[in-house]
Specification:
Layout (H helix, E strand, L loop, with lengths): L1 E4 L5 E4 L13 H20 L2 H4 L5 E2 L11
Length: 71
């Protein structure tokens, strides 16, 4: 997952891989938890003070480390 600032200084997020959740899948709970973990991380990043994100540094987050959750 990549987070950067757009031309207006707003955070822009890009997923490096898609996550597909199929109903009646054996691993449904794990996949849903992974998606929710991504959403939680995005919300936490969006709430951080703008000063930290205005440094111009592009932050890349490993999908396995998002919100402290593992696959």
């Amino acid at each position: 997952m990549e987070c950067s600032l757009d031309n207006e200084g707003k955070p822009s997020f890009k997923l490096s891989e898609l996550v597909t959740v199929l109903y009646k899948d054996e691993n449904l709970q794990a996949k849903v938890e992974k998606v929710i973990g991504h959403i939680v991380w995005l919300l936490e990043e969006a709430q951080k003070p703008m000063e930290a994100s205005q440094s111009g540094v592009k932050r890349v987050k490993s999908l396995s480390n998002i919100a402290g959750k593992s696959n």
